[in-house]
Amino acid sequence: MSSAYSGTTAAPRPVPNLRAALAAGPVVGTFQVLASAAVTEVLALAGAQVIILDAEHAALDVTALEHHVRAARSVGGCAVVRVPEIGAYLSRSLDLGAAGVIVPRVETAAQARQVVEAVRFPPLGARGFGAGRASGFGLQMAGYRQAADAETAVVVMVETRRGLENVHEIAAVDGIDVVMVGPADLASSLGTEVGSAQHAAAVETVFDAALAAGRHVGMHCADAAEAATYAARGARLLLVATDSLFLAGSAARTFDDAASSLAQQQLATAGEEQLQGRRFLS
Fold first, then answer.
1. Exposed site from 109, 178, 226, 229, fewest CB < 10 Å?
2. Per the database record, which ranges form the HpcH/HpaI aldolase/citrate lyase domain (predicted)?
């Protein structure tokens, strides 16, 4: 069976310590919305440095997240959970072994502090101990608190007008690692379109606030070219498209190519038949 992939490598490039990886340079990954944990494995094996399990928009409950996190870890991958909101999903995701959390629609410094309180252990936060996968099911508790606080990545998303207005205060909250732009929702909240002058200025405001506060910047990018553009601007967490878009895009291109090749073959066959017919008549 031939492979559809013609690149030079499909080996995983794990970044189990996402905080350290972000400090070292850009990290490239994607969002996962498809329910199968096999997709998580495929993405990790294909080279996704981080896989964002989208519990905000996809049908992923805590049980499903456990399967996805385990699948990622089984092949050396890194899974982060985008939670639906500030709440129980934060600590549960980390207890499952996620390398970090992404929190949507953070609009105030008070909300950012709520996030930190939920995911950091005392004294910075108020997270409780859980005997889950992250702590070896209670068998590796020694030093776990220190290691978890050192390695867990905390990402807050600015994707509303109110969040934009408060972005400097949000970025200043201790315990936040990444301030991420939600480009489509931000454009919608501002009453404009992605790529407009107003939208571009808003994105720049988030970049400036995050970098001034010593935080990394995250971006959800349409494609690799856009990711490269934002990386040059200083973004570190670069999330390209989604797993469903990869599947749909690849399938559409393959079927279009197949249809085009078949049409060309049919034209060539028809031309050859016409030529043979003229030869017969002559």
1. 229
2. 29-242
